[in-house]
Specification:
Elements lengths: L4 H10 L3 E5 L6 H11 L3 E4 H9 L4 H8 L7 H20 L6 E4 L9 H10 L1 E6 L5 H10 L18 H23 L2 E4 H4 L6 H8 L4
Parallel strand pairs: 1-3, 1-4, 2-3, 4-5
Helix pairs in contact: 3-5, 5-6
Length: 214
């Protein structure tokens, strides 16, 4: 949704502002959303919670354990189910009538059904939190130490002389690069994760960062 800075402010004051945060898991979307909700008048919708509730998973770890890794049997069938559930959850979030809606999407939002993604882009100001190079290793580490379901699509391959897990580490940056292009394509605003996660970035500056350039 292409809007001006003035329109952004006007919509917020009327309670009609709609923002969607996109980007990889663990990049800072949920952290940003929760900070904003605490200090500004936003209604937060966490898509991953909607998915877990629909699928009956108690925690993110349960969801991740169910989906598994791309080298486990039946992974791609479960990946398809996960994307279907995410499409339904995202569509539900889009249709919310709450004031100043803030959607915390999952990292795989770019893979949901085309018509639902187009509806999100058309009706929401999409803010992409981009991974800073210095945070790349942290994201890889977090992926294994704090499991979250991850949609790999065709970006995983078993590498000769490496274990399946070692192959994941090699392929992960390639997945990030492919996703970066997809995120950028639908984003109205791009913010670097280094700024989002900087402790010196106070809440008012964070809110400013979200807004259109002019």
């Amino acid at each position: 949704m292409n809007i001006s800075r003035h329109d952004f402010s006007k919509r917020y004051q009327k309670g009609d502002l709609k923002i969607a945060l996109i980007g990889m898991s663990n990049v800072g979307k949920s952290y940003t959303a929760k900070r904003l909700v605490k200090h500004y008048e936003f209604s937060l919708i966490e898509v991953d919670r909607l998915i877990r509730k629909n699928m009956g998973h108690e925690s993110m770890k349960d969801f991740a354990d169910w989906q598994g890794q791309p080298f486990t049997n039946g992974y791609y069938e479960r990946e398809d189910i996960s994307i279907q559930k995410e499409t339904i959850a995202t569509k539900s979030a889009i249709s919310s009538k709450k004031k100043n809606t803030l959607i915390d999407t999952t990292g795989s939002v770019i893979y949901i059904e085309k018509d639902v993604l187009e509806e999100l882009v058309k009706n929401f100001f999409v803010v992409y939190i981009q991974v800073h190079e210095d945070h790349m290793e942290r994201l890889k580490s977090d992926y294994f130490s704090n499991p979250k379901p991850l949609v790999w699509k065709s970006h995983y391959r078993k590498i000769s002389a490496k274990t399946p897990i070692e192959s994941l580490f090699v392929c992960y940056p390639e997945l990030l690069n492919a996703r970066r292009k997809a995120y950028e394509k639908i984003a109205d605003k791009i913010i670097c994760s280094s700024k989002i996660l900087d402790e010196k970035t106070d809440i008012d500056e964070l809110f400013e960062l979200l807004q259109p350039a002019d």
